[in-house]
Amino acid sequence: MRKVFIKLSIVLVALSLAGFLFGCSAQKTSENQGEKSQGKTIKIGVLPIEDNLPFYAAEKDGLFAQEGVQVELVSFPSAMERDAALQAGQIDGQVADLVAVALLKKIGTDVKIASIGLGATPQEGRFAILSSPKSDITDLAQLKGGTLGISQNSIIDYVSDQMLTDQGIKLDDVKKMAIPKMPVRLDMLLSDQINSACLPDPLASLAQAKGAHLLKDDTYKNISQTVFLFRTQVIKENPDEIKAVVRAYGSAGQALTSHPDQYRELFLEKAQIPPDIKDSYQMPTFSQLQLPTEDEVKSVMEWMVAKNLISEAYSYQDLVDPSLLPNQ
Q1: What is the pLDDT of residues 97-135, one digit of tens each?
Q2: Is the distance from CB of 124 to CB of 227 less than 8 angstroms?
Q3: 20 to 30 Å CA-CA from 206: which of 25, 55, 233, 315?
Q4: What three-state secondary structure class fits 149?
Q5: At 114, which helix (H) or strand (E)?
């Protein structure tokens, strides 16, 4: 009888131990699965500009959660600080332009373009050359010998050169003045300290509202695009999360385009539209997700080589990742 009792006790202990070990294993597996399902939080650097509006709309409407991805929007006061954070690996993606993409790659930060932000059509993301309200210059041809405020070696520099060249104006006939900070450039234009300036919207529209003369804008031809980019390492390590972010951005862009009134207050707040034009300024429209064309990329690369900003043009394949677009 005692032997039976001892054997029974051993069996009960063994069963209890097995149950304990199984429970621990199941709990650990459950925890690991929970960590896996949560995935990486994708950090996106944003500036107070209209190009980033789909990120804010996606956050507001819960589109990131619907796509099963966690996204943190990290605000920066300037593109320089945002780019530095990208280089340091503190953020995973951002909206920039083709000039910025090539410069990032030049300094060793490998990135890939997932889609155009604004600029799939000439009407999206307008840049304009304007003359001072006090100036007699009312046509771009009259700018010969005058000063043009720009941010040097930037997309604004590129756009200015394209517009001048398309109008048959020799670049040497215009004196470019580097004024990196756009609010300062606007103030110098309005106070007649420079003859003209190249500005993006909404500052271009504000300048017009204050009497500046529109000499030329880029709505006649698709010269510039902003692009949605990620660090290549993050794409390799988290392809599903990155694709989910891209889908959410695209869905939010279409919602903004289809129902602008629903997002008007969000737009005025996040894009920091100047009070003087907040009632009249139109919300941007966003096209379906798509990549810039090979010709658009080639044009920017050739300009950068000519300006000695890069020693050799990057190929289209160097800069874009078609696999990140939906249904690719």
Answers
A1: 999 999 999 999 999 999 999 999 999 999 999 999 999
A2: no
A3: 55
A4: strand
A5: strand 111-116
